[in-house]
Amino acid sequence: MSGSATQFVYRPTAARRLRAAGALIFVLVLVGTQIAWSMVGIGIVGGLWPGPDGWEWVYDVVDTLLVLARLVAVIVTAVVFIQWQRSVTHNLHVIGAAVVDPSVTLSTWGWFIPVGNLYIPCASMLQIARRSVPYGERPAVALVGAWWASWLTAYFVAAIGNSLQRRAETAEPWITAVTVAIIADAIFLLAAALAIQLVGRLTRQQQARLSVRSPASA
Question: Which residues, at least 6 apart from 118, have a Cβ–Cβ distance to it below 8 Å?
Answer without folding.
Answer: 152
